[in-house]
Write a structure and sequence with these properties.
This protein is an alpha+beta fold. The protein is built from 3 helices and 4 strands. It has helices at about 10-15, 45-50, 65-80; strands at about 1-5, 20-25, 35-40, 55-60. It has a 4-stranded antiparallel beta sheet, sandwiched between helices. Strand 2 (about 20-25) and strand 3 form a beta hairpin. Bound molecules: zinc ion. Zinc ion (ZN) binds near residues 73, 89 and 105. This is GIY-YIG nuclease family protein. It comes from candidate division WOR-3 bacterium.
C-alpha cells in the first residue's frame, strides 16, 4: 500500500496512475486507516470523490479485479476487522468466483 498522501484532487492526479483499478484506503488521520475500498477501473476518480470527507489516502494498483479483491481482503483484515467503524467485509467482484484468502467467506 502506497501512502499516506494528502487527499486533495491535485495530489491524487500527481500520485495515482490514470485509468487503473485497485485498492484504496481513506482516513482522517495519517496513522490509522478507516476505510478500505476497491475501484474496478479508475482509482483516481474513486479517490477524488472522497476528498471532502477524508484527509489522507493510500492506494495499490491491481491488474485484474481478482487481484484487487485479494489485496482488499488482506488490507481489510489487517486494518479494519476489529470494531473499526463496523464496516462490512469486502464483496467479491461480479462474475468472479473467489473467496477471501484470510477468512474463507
Ligand atoms: Zn475475509
Amino acid at each position: 500500500m502506497r501512502g499516506p498522501y494528502l487527499l486533495r484532487p491535485l495530489q491524487v492526479d500527481i500520485s495515482v496512475p490514470d485509468k487503473i483499478g485497485g485498492v484504496y484506503c481513506l482516513s482522517k488521520n495519517s496513522k490509522k486507516i478507516e476505510i478500505v475500498a476497491r475501484a474496478e477501473r479508475n482509482l483516481r476518480d474513486a479517490i477524488k470523490a472522497h476528498w471532502k470527507e477524508y484527509e489522507f489516502f493510500w492506494y495499490e494498483p491491481a491488474l485484474t479485479p481478482r487481484e484487487a479483491y485479494l489485496n482488499q481482503c488482506y488490507t481489510y483484515h489487517r486494518f479494519c476487522e476489529n470494531g473499526n467503524g463496523g464496516h462490512e467485509h469486502p464483496k467479491p467482484p461480479e462474475k468472479v468466483e473467489i473467496k477471501c484468502p484470510v477468512c474463507g467467506v
